[in-house]
Amino acid sequence: MTLAVRKGPLDGRVAIVTGGSRGIGGAIATLLAEDGAAVVVSGRDADRLQRTAKELEAQGGAVLGVVADVAIREDAERLVDAAKQRFGRVDILVNNAGVIRDGLLVRMKDEDWDHVMNVNLRGAFLLTRAATKLMIRQKSGGRVINIASTAGAMGNAGQANYSAAKAGLIGFTKATARELAHWSILVNAVAPGLIETDMTAGISPEARAELLAEVPLKRIGTPRDVAEVVRFLAGDGAAYITGQVVHVNGGLYM
Ligand code: NAI
């Protein structure tokens, strides 16, 4: 596949989507490819990545799957290098990889705190540093889109680690938006509410009903609901937006 295969608003641009083989990341990779971007999807499961890459290619996308753990510096840097080697550049970075390790604070293990911080927050730092160094050298701007969470804005009981990591990601978004504006690199966050993915599949029917009762739109969100906003923030229509948090939550948090 070559970059010239598709025609769309993101033609000629190269995007990295971490954790892009399923769920919200999978939907983001699909829509960016639909808009013409060459997409590099990363994840930890080689087989699943391969399947996702094949599916996107079957729809006419230019895709590369890279096995990489975002929390490991060497992996993050290798991911950016692989994108540059295969497609020549990087224009869009979507820091989507995320994990939960829920538990009440008083029972939370150190490892559960550290792991959630490492993947959700350190991972975004490592990838953003590596990718924006390249974007600065390219001298043609860029976009960084961080997938935060409603939890980072309102806090969730049982998710002190995750809420802190996502709130940290929002602070990181604003600080880097200020720093990188000089090079026309725009940094924004998208904060999803309750979205139907593997991450939320384990919520009991009772807890789900309770959560949904708090959502004015009275439905659980889809990965596509989130991906549509990422697609917009990656495109030319979002040229004057930086340092913002766009909430996609059916009204759960206003
Ligand atoms: P998911 O569990 O389906 O997908 C998470 C992805 O991250 C997977 O592809 C997984 O392999 C990848 N990942 C996890 N650890 C990784 C690591 N160390 N290195 C590389 N990749 C890693 O979950 P979902 O829902 O699609 O989550 C995507 C993002 O959206 C996450 O950042 C999550 O925190 C956020 N989010 C999800 C919400 C939901 O209700 N599903 C709500 C708010 C935010």
CATH architecture label name = 3-Layer(aba) Sandwich
Order of helices and strands: EHEHEHEHEHHEHHE
Work out the strand percent: 5-15%
Instruction: Give Rg in angstroms.
Output: 17 Å
Description:
It is a single chain. By secondary structure, this protein is an alpha/beta fold. The chain has one domain: Rossmann fold (3-Layer(aba) Sandwich), CATH 3.40.50. It is built from eight helices and seven strands, in the order E-H-E-H-E-H-E-H-E-H-H-E-H-H-E. It has helices at residues 23-34, 46-58, 73-87, 110-138, 150-154, 160-180, 205-213, 223-234, and strands at 14-18, 38-43, 63-67, 92-95, 142-147, 185-192, 245-248. The protein has a seven-stranded parallel β-sheet with strand order 3-2-1-4-5-6-7, with helices on both faces. Helix 1 crosses helix 8 (223-234) and helix 4 packs parallel to helix 6 (160-180). The radius of gyration is 17 Å and the shape is globular. It starts with 13 loop residues before the first strand and ends in a 6-residue tail after the last strand. The mean pLDDT is 96. The structure holds 1,4-dihydronicotinamide adenine dinucleotide. 1,4-dihydronicotinamide adenine dinucleotide binds at residues 18-19, 21-25, 42-44, 69-71, 96-99, 119, 147, 149, 192, 194-195, 197-200.
Task: Describe the structure concisely.
This protein is of the alpha/beta class. Helices cover 46% and strands 15% of the residues.
